[in-house]
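Course assignment 3, question 2. Fill in each field.
Student: A.L.
Task: Predict the tertiary structure for the chain below.
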Amino acid sequence: MKNPIGDHNKTPATSQPKEKRNPSSPKLSKKFSQKFEKTKVAASTGMKKVKEGASHGVNRIKVKMNKEKLISKK
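Answer field:
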C-alpha cells in the first residue's frame, strides 16, 4: 500500500549547474542605469511633494480644530 502523504525518502533531483557570469561584464547596462537614476530622482521628488502636502493638510486641520475649541470656550 502506498503512503497517501507521499514518499519522504526520495532524494531530491539535482539541478543543473548555473552558468557563471563573465566578471568583466557590467551588472546593468549603462542606458538602464541612467534611466533607473532618473526614475529614482522622480520618485524622490514625488514623495517630497506628497509629504509636504500631507503636512500642510494636517496643519490646516489642527488650526481649524484649535479655532473651534477657542470659539466653543467663549
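Instructor remarks: DSSP finds one helix and no strands in the chain. The helical segments are 30-73.
Grade: pending
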